[in-house]
Structure formats: C-alpha cells, structure tokens
C-alpha cells in the first residue's frame, strides 16, 4: 500500500468511496439523502491524501490543517479491516502538530473503537440529541 496526496484525477474514485462507505456504515443516517456531491462540499479547502494499491484507491483522509483537525477518514467497504484506516491515521498524525483532534459520531461504535485502539481519547460529547458526536484527541 502506498500513501500519496490526492489530485484532481482522483476525485471520481474519492467521491464514490465517500458515498459507498457512508451508505454502508452510517446506519443512523438517511442514506437516500447522500450523494456523490457530498464529497466536494465536505472536503472543500482541505488537504486530502489517499492510500492506494495497484492503482486502486482504498481510502482517504481529509485534514483541516490550520486547526490540526482530521475531518474525514474513509475506507472503501471492500477494504475494511485491512490496515488502510491505520495508515491514514498515521499519515495524518505525521502531517499535523499535536494535539490533533477529530469528531466521531457517537452512534458509530466501530469507528469509536478503532480510534481508541489507536490511542485517541474521548474529550467531550457534543451535538444535539439526534446527532451526538465525540471530540477525540491524540497527543
């Protein structure tokens, strides 16, 4: 597996991964309301890098560098549990200054467990009753 900065030619594959991963994992959300355009809106102005193997994109992360904040970490559903997410987190940590923060939807138990297994700590739970999330930090 190889990590590199995303470019404009990667956009179709990244949009598809973002949509498919959310539709498969976000059981609490309205998956019919999700579109390919969401990727463009949700990553605007962010630093994006990806993991690929044999010219196939397996996952990506988008970072908001001014705040040392990981905004998105998404892995194609076919590659869950294969180490892609760990590589994306490692590359994110290497790119930013600590402490680094991210938000994880409280209902996303698998992601929460994943982050905690990688050394992330829950700081505070925020959001409205229907969309709670944990702010997590890595030092």
Topology:
Blueprint: E1 2-5, H1 11-25, H2 37-42, E2 47-53, E3 56-64, E4 69-75, H3 84-95, E5 100-105, H4 109-117, E6 121-126, E7 133-138
CATH superfamily: Gcn5-related N-acetyltransferase (GNAT)
Structural class: alpha+beta
**Rg estimate, integer Å:** 14 Å
Task: Encode the helix/strand succession as letters.
Answer: EHHEEEHEHEE
How many separate structural domains? 1
Question: What is the average per-residue confidence, as pLDDT, rounded to a whole number?
Answer: 94
- C-alpha geometry: globular
Helix percentage range: 25-40%
Number of helices: 4
* Lateral arrangement of strands in the main beta sheet: 1-2-3-4-5-7-6
Pfam families: Acetyltransf_1
Domain N-acetyltransferase: 1-139
InterPro entries: Acyl_CoA_acyltransferase, Bact_Acetyltransf, GNAT_dom
Keywords: Acyltransferase, Transferase
